[in-house]
Design goal:
The chain is mainly α. Helix content is about 65%, strand content about 0%. It contains three helices and no strands.
Length: about 90
């Protein structure tokens, strides 16, 4: 077997091993994060603000939020209402 074929076989072996390892450990490590607190900064200066913020995000983390932006409020509102129908 020449050098290029050996490198291809090693490349395939490495990637298949990585894929098998990922599949075997998927349930333990891969999770979809629905907690918005993971992307918000911690407010070290204001402890009184952090607790209500945590409560809000924990209550709303199980629902899907879609934010619609427009320069015209009525257009954004009508677009949101159309999405809500679906």
């Amino acid at each position: 077997m020449n050098r290029s074929k050996l490198l291809i076989v090693l490349w395939i072996f490495f990637h298949l091993s990585a894929l098998i390892l990922f599949i075997a450990r998927y349930d333990k490590t891969a999770k979809i994060d629905t907690n918005f607190l993971s992307i918000t900064p911690k407010f070290l200066e204001d402890k009184d603000f952090q607790k209500p913020l945590e409560d809000f995000f924990l209550k709303n983390s199980s629902s899907i939020k879609i934010f619609i932006e427009s320069d015209n409020f009525d257009i954004a509102k009508n677009s949101a209402l159309k999405l809500e129908e679906y």
